[in-house]
UniProtKB/TrEMBL annotation:
Superkingdom of origin: Archaea
One Pfam family, short name: AA_permease_2
Entry's Gene Ontology molecular function annotations: transmembrane transporter activity
Phylogenetic placement of the source organism: Archaea, Methanobacteriati, Methanobacteriota, Stenosarchaea group, Methanomicrobia
Localization per record: Cell membrane
Bilayer topology annotation: Multi-pass membrane protein
Transmembrane segments: 21-39, 45-64, 105-127, 139-158, 170-190, 210-230, 250-275, 295-321, 342-362, 368-390, 411-433, 439-459
GO CC list: plasma membrane
Keywords: Cell membrane, Membrane, Transmembrane, Transmembrane helix
Protein name: Dimethylamine permease
Source species of the chain: Methanosarcina barkeri 3
Amino acid sequence: MSNEKSENGGLQRTIDWKQGLAIALGVPVLILPSIGYFANYVWAFAIIIWALSVFQGFMQNFAYGELATMFPKASGLPGYAQSVFTGNASNRYDLSKLLGGFSAWSYWFAWNPVLAIYSILIGSYLKGLLPALAGVPDLTIYLVSGAVVFILLILVNYRGLAGGAKLGYILAVLSLAPLIIIALAPFVTGHFELNNITGAWLPADWSWDIQHILILLGLFAMAQWSACAWETAAIYGPEYKQPKSDVPKALFICGAICLVTFILVQAACTGALGIEGILSEPVSPMLPIAQMTLGTIGGSLTIFMLIAAMILIIQTAFLGASRAMYSMAEEGNLPGFFGKMNAYGTPVNSMIVIALLNMGFICLGTPAAIVAASAIGYVCANGISLLAYVKAKIDPKFSKLERPFKAPGGWRHVALFFGFFNLPLCLIGIIYLNSLEVGWTSTIVGFVVLALYLPLWYYSQNENRTTLEKDDSLSSESTI
């Protein structure tokens, strides 16, 4: 691969759309911790929620695909919002710049806790698989599994994104294919019963009052955290060899794969196990399906498959979160420390900070609370990014930018609709759902993490001004 630097002077153009797709193919695995969660609230109607959420992803990603070609130097959603909301350079604390940076920070917070969530799940599966671990405290297993995975991924990606993409090829085969095979198995073996779906669309006490509508909005917020997350394929915009064609290809092929897998997996679990069967195994309902259709050996192989799948999604989140921090530092919205690259164009500082932060998240030991908190960030990131697309379409200063890929005519209205669907509707929904499920802890944690951006941003603005004044002083001295 070429080691030429990209136009932005840091990240390098070393991958094509197939490699970007390989890294993003971890997204279908995001359904695993939510299968039982959704079935508990809406029974078989969860299938419809997943289908509508992937459809929402297509609607949003038409806008993101156009933004990717308008701003080829930008790193996905974090870069797009910051490129549109640039602010006034003469105003040190410009609110437009703050909004763009906050969108990027929200996106970072959405992806960042994935590392902790799936490290906990890996440790949990390993403990169930290996009797020798039975007496080891859960937290110890979680921390060790997290540390091993984080160190491995830092080493793999140290020499650039291409190495991570190669790992993505391997793990995509190890995880995505078995996931589909296990989901298809009940249809082949005759264990799938359509009546488990048609006879259990919604709970008997379900009504379309305001409380249940808020629950539905909260589920859509959590669903898009999984089912819309394939927009991550666009975050590597500065690292694609041909971003004009690579970004749309990677985005929409990944979207088609997600549409099939999200519907198929939830339908297979519901049809084969029934609602009661899912709720009896809410964390890992794929395991009884594998044992039912593939035998005891199939159950053990499924655990290893799930571990491979979880490493893949940790890889996706690790790369996405580190590049979000790099993007914010490059735009002057985070301290410069996070924008420093190694000799191979990899933001190692950001990766190390993220790994350490997630070791702290692991100490919480509650994946559901972490998911609920990070979904707040994802809702904010999508809402602001879609409004950034609307601004980019109507603001005259962006009218001359080249747009090799264009969303269909009038798409700014679609983006505006989904922008307001995210903010405030889904935000209100996830706050209400959190209050029912895990109390106010997740909501408080979510807003505290988002609020931490303000002092970091304030510090970075002063750092930028100090650097600028120093450069001006050196320039004046050299002139004299």
